[in-house]
Structure formats: structure tokens, C-alpha cells
Amino acid sequence: MSPSTRLLACAFACLLASSFARSGEPEAFPVPTPEEREQFRKSHVRIGGMGAPLSNDETAIAAAQDDVDIQHYWLVLEFVPSTRRVTGSVTIIGKSLVNGFQHLVLDLMANMTVTSVRLGLTTYDFTRPGDLIDITLGQTYDVGETFQVQVLYNGIPDATGFGSISWQKTGSAALGTMVSTLSEPDGARTWWPCKDRPDDKATVEEWWTVPSAWTATGNGRLIGTVVNTTTGKTQYKWKVHDPLTTYLVSVAATGYNTFSQTYTTLTGGTMPIDHYVYPEHQAAAEESFAPLPAMMAFYAQKFGEYPFVEDKYGMSEFPWGGAMEHTTNTSYGYQLINGQHNYDFVIAHELAHQWWGDSVSPETWADIWLNEGFATYAEALWAENLGGAAGYKNYMNSFWRSSFTGTVYNPSDLFGATVYDKGGWVQHMLRRVVGDTNFFNALRDWYANNTNGNGDTALYQATHEARFGATLDVFFQQWVYGSGQPRYEYGWSTADLGNGNYRTYVRIRQTQTTSGLFTMPVDLTLVTPGGNQIRTVQNDQLDQTFTLDTTAPVTGFVFDEQDWILKQSKTFVAPPDADGDGVPDLNDNCTNAANATQLDFDNDGAGDFCDPDDDNDGLADGLDCAPLDTAQGSVGLVATLSLDELAGTALLTWDAAARAETYDLQRGTLTELGEGGYGACLAPGIAVTSYEDLDVPDADSGFFYLVRGHDGGCGEGGSLGTASAGAARPSACP
Description:
By secondary structure, the chain is an alpha+beta fold. Helices cover 18% and strands 31% of the residues. The strands form ten sheets. An eight-stranded mixed β-sheet has the order 5-4-8-2-1-11-14-13, with no helix packed on it. It has a four-stranded antiparallel β-sheet with strand order 9-10-15-12, with no helix packed on it. The protein has a four-stranded mixed β-sheet with strand order 27-24-23-29, with no helix packed on it. Strand 16 (257-264) and strand 17 (270-277) form a beta hairpin. The longest helix is centred in the middle third of the chain and has 29 residues, at 369-397. 42% of the residues are buried.
């Protein structure tokens, strides 16, 4: 169902007032505004309820539907416009999924009368608990065994849902001027007995009897007509080659004109596209529907061959205010046919549903986004085909809104903006995350592996993971199963590193309050004199800074320029930079002195421009002859000197002095010391921290030793300490 199908009724003038209307063949895909989409959705409400909730007993009875797989339906129905009565039979072929199966439970609203259930001349017992038919078959069936029954019934259906059955040609026409159906999501049971669930698909044959002045359309290919001149009625026999789900079974009958288009298949064959329109609208329809064959060819190239190429495609005009993707035969609102192209997006949407929804159907209604989000996104793909990247971006942004209600999976509103528009955005973002090749290959896999079947969200995730080669759990948890969207604040500045090198600092903050972190790749466009550069960063923190190096100055910056991320907003916040060096204060290791290069020799977080000891060697830079060399610089004092005297020798040992490579040792007498002398150089350039003095003076004379470290570099000789008066002791060693 297209975005415009979320409308039950809208005045014709309202539809014509769209600002994007144009005449003739469109040069580009017209883009509906979010307001115009919302205008349709506000009227997207049910006419009435689907009956009372099942009682506990009825729920238990309905559970038996899990035990059977319906294989085929043959509907032989007459639609009587004068009384709005439906009468006839539905023959059902089913296959048991369990041993001992005997109860076939079908859905049919309680106001419809079942006259008998039979097989040939054999009748079966049945009961009518609420809106169910509980049929007791004539025998039990084991797994894989098939059976057949025919249900004869009649009644005047009560329209529910979006109008599961209508008897008017237009909103203002008299009753009985047409019959049409729109059964999504669970309205098939209002007019025919079936297992009314999306997960059980069956082939269908439809024999519709209507007044001979009418033409009755259905699903599949028309295989015959029977005209009864006596009764003035005609029976139209339709048969669909592939299985479909019950909500897609459709009849539309009135006084139609018909015209055809031709689709050229991927293998070069042809397939008819047959349209049924009100006579007064034929000329307008021929113009409005003109793009359809090209759309079909494009989608076939993108997704795989049109699913129902053995049958046909076409559209039947009907009274509803939008459109509905009935298999092979879309029902298209009369209000949309105006000879212009402002509703091409509806045509594209419904056509895409033939792949997404009709061929691959949802396992449950919780997975409805696999229908509507996909078809919505297909509109954007058609816009991309016509208008390139700019057209694609522009169209995607028509789905944008600052917030969506609830989750994409299992939504609170099956047909709300979250399912359609956010569902489309999920596809758009997933394409960016996995890349074009993986994305479109996975889409083709999804179609090829599940055509004529059902799929759910978990299987769709697995399909993409198989192509991507990595888990996508974080993406699906935050965008499909979770709610909300990120709100970004970002800032940037560039520092000139010299020699033609530049470093740009980018800070990204997520400030949303109603949801957690959204982990996404973010494209950052750096504008330079030589052209734009796109850098992609993985934003996986609420507050994160990235550094990007270039060989040209960055003069401009764009955050997510192509709008690959569904965000509440993006706001530029200039980063504070107190010293004006291009390095934000948050990242600057010295905020009070310009230091674009951010040099930090000792990696202690205090930049060299601010660090009092750049090499962290314990010497302040002003006292350090080598402030960027921990191995060189002013030599520290020898703190401890020990002496062991044995048999006329003395073994001296001392603690290592900071930055000392060798040591100078001098010796003197106490007499010299008293006279202000400090002895003579005993041993210069000692490479170790010990020395054996083999010529010790007489003990009676008294003597002393002094040792200092020596740096072979700029530090030279260290200190011997200071005398009592505070003056430095002189060294006797060179």
C-alpha cells in the first residue's frame, strides 16, 4: 500500500492542489512533501472494527490453523449490486502438517451465512464459533496428506479495515455502481472464507459473476468468460500462476474501458500490462500510467525479474483515495488519475510491492515494514534512476521527520509513518553501512530465496549479513527493533603543522535524550582548495573526537553531506580555541600557548610549550642543557659514598648519579681540606660505581675522597657539592 493509500477519502480538488503537479512526461520524479504524505495518512483509519476479540474457547479453536497448509482456493462468487450480496462457494485444498488432523478452521465473519460444507455429495459437520468456521472433516489426515472441501455461503459483507468491500464507483456515487475489495490487513474474512493470515499462501482461481454491463478484474490472467444472455450476467475466470496471501485476493468490477502497455522481460519476451479504468478517465490514465513499463524494467534490473511474468500486471481503477497492491492487479484510486505525473510515486510504490509484499510476503504483521518500508524505498530508487545522486538524496529527504513513533518492527500503527518512511530510511542507511554491491546483491538474494514465500525481519538481517560478511546486530537493534534517532552536535578546526601538512580536529556529540547511542559510519566532507575530500569515521561513542590529516588547508566542512543518517538534527558548535592555534582546547596539550604541532616529548599530556620538564628527567628545562634528552643534561649529585679499608687498600663504592656516564674521583688530606683545598684527581673517567685505592695514605695523616658524575655530552662534569660557606667545591679532575 502506497503512502497515498493511507487515505480513506480526500476531495478531488485536494488532490489536484499539490504543488508538485505537472503535465506531460516528467523530466524528473516529482517529490511529495512530508506534509503531503501526512495529509494522506491522517485519513488512514479503519471504517470499523474487525469484530469482537476471540474468546478463550475461540482462540483455542483458531489455533488449529497452525496444523494446516492451504494449497489452493477456488472462489466461485456472484456479486449482486442491487442487494450488495455475495453468494457462492469457495473450494479449498489443504495439506495436513500434523498426524490425525481433522478440524479445518477458517475465518469468516459471523454475519455471513454458511449453508453447507461438502465434498461432492458428502456433507461435513461444522460449527460457527464467533467469526470462525470449525469444520469436522470426514476422516483424519496425517502429515503431508491433502484434502478438499467446498464451503457454500452468502451474505451482505460488513466493510471493515480500510473498506474491505465497497459498492460505489466514487465517494459520491450511488450504491451498486461498482464492487471492489481492499482486504489488508485482515478483511478477506469479511467477504470470503479463508485462513486469513499472511503466512499461509496458496494458488487462487477466481470466477466472478457480475452484471454483463460490467467487467470484473481479478488476480492473475483472464482464462475465460461466460456470458449468460438470459440472466444478463457474465462470469470472468481469473487464475494466478503463483501463490498469494489472502489479503491480496481482489475483485474490482464496474463499467470499465481497458487499454494495454507492454513490458519487455529480461530475456527479451513480452508481457501485457492491462489497465481497467472508468471510461471518462481513459485519456488521463493513458498519460498518468505512461512511465509504468520503464519502472517495471528498472525494478526488474535491480531486484530480479517481475515476479508474475507468467501472468500480467495492470491496474484497476477503484473508489478508494489511494492504491492497493493486489497481486498482478493493483487497485488504483480514481482521484489519482488526472493526466499528470504528480502521483508517479504511487505507481512506483505499488509496482514495487509486487516484489516486496506480494511475492515475498511478511511472516507476521509485525514484519509489515518489509512490505511498506521496501516499497517506499523503491520510490527513492526510481528517483535516483531519473535524477542521479541529487535526485535520490532529495527524495529520501522527503521521508524525513525529526521523530517517529515507536519501532519499525512490530509497530503500534501498521500503516503509519514509522513503517513507511522510517522503514525506507532503514533501507537507505543499511545501503550505506554495507555498501552498494552488498546491499543490492542481498536484495536480490532476499527476492530469489523467498519468492512466492514469506520472510521475517531476522531472516532479512541474516541475508544481509551473509553478503556483508559481519554481524549487523547493532544496526538492526538500534534502527529496527529500537526507537528514536540521533541528534548530533559537531565542531571542527584545522591546525597548520607546517611543511604543507594540516590536521583537522572533528568532535561529534550525540545529545538525544529519549534513546541511547547510535553507532554509525559518518561521512565528513573536508573542503580544500584542491577539491573536496570525504573521510568516513565510525562514530561509536556519545562524545568522540577524530583527527584527520591533509596536505592542503581545510577551508570548509560538511557533516553527513549526503544525508545517509536519519537524524533529529545536526548543529555546528564552534570548538573553543583559546590560543588560536587550530587545536581545540579540549584536545590542546597547552591551551595558553600556540602549538599547532602538539609536541609532547615525554608523552605526559603536558605539551612541550607548557611542560617545565620536557624530557621528564627531573631537571627543569631552564637548568637542563639537553631538555629533550633524558640521557644528557646536568649530572646529579652522588648521594652516598662508602669505604671499606683492608690491609692498606680502600674499596670505595657509591650510588649512581643521575645522567652520569663516568665518574671522577679525587683524594686529599684533612690538612688540605682545612686550608681550603680539595685534594688531587685520583682517577678520572671511572666507568663503574666503585674503585679500589691501592695506595691509601697513612691513617695518621687523615684523608678524604670526593666523587662526581661526568656526562660525556653537554652536561660535562657534575657537582662535588658545596662547601660550608655555600660555594661549589672545585674539581681537581679535568
